[in-house]
Write a structure and sequence with these properties.
The protein has 300 residues and is mainly α. It contains 14 helices and two strands.
Length: 300
């Protein structure tokens, strides 16, 4: 299957969760219509569905059941979308454009955007736990997968990286150690731990889980390095977001730490590391090889 095939499966399931409420009803025991609309505004804004698709592809590679894993993949996308809503807020990156359309807080207001992000985070875990409760025979596997996804999104992962990102920007910290902490937590962890979750869902051994984690680390850091490059060399039409803000705000990035050529060299090294991590899987890992190859040359 291709990335588009996996993304289509994720989109079909996301059309069912969270609940769609078109009007502004406020009924006891029901999600407010305003919350549903604000959550779905960002969830349906497009995007590559990269993280959930990689989870499903890893399950396929390990011989697991992608239907069984689909709700976990959708949860990863909901968590990712919540993080983008919050990242765009005035108190963080203060962005007005995301995925080619006005950011959530521009449309719904800051308070409602915060709550839309909170809602997506909570529904992500409700979705995974509902699946686990409906299939108690797989509870051990499901709980291990949920733990991985929570860790990737949590205080030692994505949130920790975001905290360091803001701290460095405000304190004027600009060193490679801080950059490594930011990009590992803020970006790589949401590749590493969903891939480890795929291994948990399949009942795979730790060697497979570690190889997937190694790939996720290299891929995530490469993804961030190319993102930093495109903030300088890309176009707003391709990227669907405001460009050049990193340099304007003094944000610590690969470009500020390594320069353009140094960042390109870093991309090449991480590409090599990602391919090496896949060696134990042989031809089964072709999807992931093609994915990291494409990431090196991406324009959006």
């Amino acid at each position: 299957m291709t990335l588009n095939d996996y993304a289509s499966r994720v989109n079909r399931r996301l059309n069912e969760i969270p609940a769609v409420i078109a009007d502004d009803r406020f009924e006891i025991g029901e999600m407010p219509g305003l919350l549903s609309r604000s959550m779905r505004y960002s969830l349906e804004a497009g995007g590559k569905r990269l993280r959930p698709s990689m989870l499903l592809a890893a399950v396929d590679m390990l011989g697991g059941d992608t239907t069984d894993a689909l709700d976990f993949a959708c949860a990863v996308e909901m968590i990712h979308t919540y993080s983008l809503i919050h990242d765009d807020l005035p108190g963080m990156d203060d962005d007005t454009l995301r995925r080619g359309r006005p950011t959530n807080h521009v449309v719904f207001g800051v308070g409602q955007a915060i709550l839309a992000g909170d809602g997506l985070l909570n529904v992500a875990f409700e979705t995974m736990l509902n699946h686990a409760c409906a299939h108690p025979e797989g509870a051990t596997r499901y709980l291990a997968a949920i733990r991985e996804i929570a860790t990737g999104a949590g205080v030692t992962g994505m949130i920790g990286g975001q905290v360091m990102d803001l701290h460095c920007e405000r304190a004027g910290i600009a060193d490679e150690r801080a950059l490594a902490y930011i990009q590992y937590g803020k970006t790589a962890c949401m590749f590493i731990h969903p891939l480890r979750a795929a291994a948990m869902l399949c009942g795979a051994g730790e060697d497979d889980a570690k190889a997937l984690a190694d790939y996720g680390r290299a891929f995530g850091l490469l993804f961030q390095a190319t993102d930093d490059l495109l903030d300088v060399t890309g176009t707003q039409a391709d990227m669907g977001k405001t460009l050049g803000k990193d340099a304007e705000s003094g944000k610590l990035t690969c470009i500020s730490a390594y320069g353009l050529e140094g960042t390109r060299a870093r991309v090449a090294q991480l590409h090599s590391e990602a391919l090496e991590a896949l060696s134990r899987f042989g031809d089964r890992a072709d999807f992931f090889r093609e994915l990291v190859d494409a990431m090196v040359d991406r324009t959006k």
